[in-house]
Amino acid sequence: MARRALLSEAWWQQATIIPDNEREIAKHYTLDRSDLELIMRQNKAANRLGLACVLATLRYPGRPLADGEVLPAGVLRFLARQIGAPWESLQYYPLRDFWRDGKQMISA
């Protein structure tokens, strides 16, 4: 049975775009107290910022980042300022499974 598309591809792309202007970033990506409590439980700055990015994009635009998709620099810096982490620490987030207590657990 053929499926009928309810939304056009163009509409879907527009509805799920991540904003890059300051007003929209502040509107959609301001973390509340419960978010901050959860995020600050993470040990490392990279993990805190990575979790903040995941929470933020799941809430708006309501989807995870696609493979190879990068958050706009303004969003990343806005989230980093809220949690007191350097925005550059996100580059270490993918390595979180490979290192524990300074020892490599899985070869990359």
Automatic annotation (TrEMBL):
Residue stretches making up the DUF4158 domain: 6-96
Name under which the protein is recorded: DUF4158 domain-containing protein
Source organism per UniProt: Neorhizobium phenanthreniclasticum
One Pfam family from the record: DUF4158
Lineage: Bacteria, Pseudomonadati, Pseudomonadota, Alphaproteobacteria, Hyphomicrobiales
InterPro entries per UniProt: DUF4158
